[in-house]
Every structure is written in C-alpha cells, then in structure tokens.
Amino acid sequence: MKYADNLFTRRDPRTLREPTVLPATPPAPGLPAAQPAAPRPAPHAPPAPEPAAARAEEPAGSKLIVGANIKLKGVEIDDCDTLVVEGRVEATMVSRAIQIAENGAFSGKVDVDVAEIRGDFQGEMTARKRLVIHASGRVAGKIRYGKMLVQEGGEMSGDIAALGAAAPIASVN
Predict the structure, then answer these.
(1) What percent of the chain has pLDDT over 70?
(2) What is the distance, to the nearest Å, from the Cα of residue 133 to the centroid of all Cα atoms in its chain?
C-alpha cells in the first residue's frame, strides 16, 4: 500500500541526538591516562527519507481513504482530490480521482477525471480523462469515459460509451 508506507515509520527526534561527550579530566598522579571512548552508532538508524523524485508520482491534495470493513452510506463527497475505497461506499461524488481496491465496492454516481477500478463499481460514472478496469475489476451501469483500458479478466456491462461520441444518426427516407 503505497499511500501508507510512511504512516508508522515516523522518526522519534530523541533518537536523532548526538551522544553527549564529557570533558576530559586530568588523570590522577600515578595512573595512566584514560583514552576517550569512540562514539557508538545508534542501534537502529532511522531509514533515510525518500527522495522527492520518488514521491512525485503520488498526487498531491486531499485524499479520503475508506478502509476495509468500513461502510460509508448516503453521503455526498465534495472537495476530495482522491477517494480510495477499500470498504463499501454508497455516495455521490465529484472529484479528480477514484481508486477502488480489490475488496472495495462503490455504488452511486461518480464524476471524476481518472477512475481506477480493481473492485466493484455499480451506478453512473463519468471518467473525463481515463477509466482503467484491472483484471479483478467489475463495472456495471451507465459509464462514460475519455479513454479506457480494460485488462484481461476485467468485466463491464451496461450503457457504456466514449465521451463526445456522436449519437447514432437516424436515417431519413
């Protein structure tokens, strides 16, 4: 789960301190001088932060994650850049992106730029730029899309059409 990689690996600032070195005291007469001990490395060095280039692929903005075993019902979702569905959602949503995980399910109306479906979607969807249905994804309902990719095994049914596609012209005799 890329969005939760650093969720539980936050560094404790107390472990980042340098060891305290006490000033050397002159040796007592007749005793050999003590050698200062070399500073020991921390037992577990914290992981290095990810370079900015690696994080650039993560979309910035507000993200709502509906976790597994959570059901969100009867809501309107607004001002959310990305909705990640791992549980069940029954809602109406206008957003930039929706991601439905393998065990996730969404039913309702969605208006997004990008939709990535690994689980179940049922209802009305408008994916203005791109709709991706992965091998485990199932989409049913009234679907409109800019561009679409369906992996082998992905399922779709219902009223499906490209955005901007001309309506069939009836012949006049």
Answers:
(1) 60
(2) 17
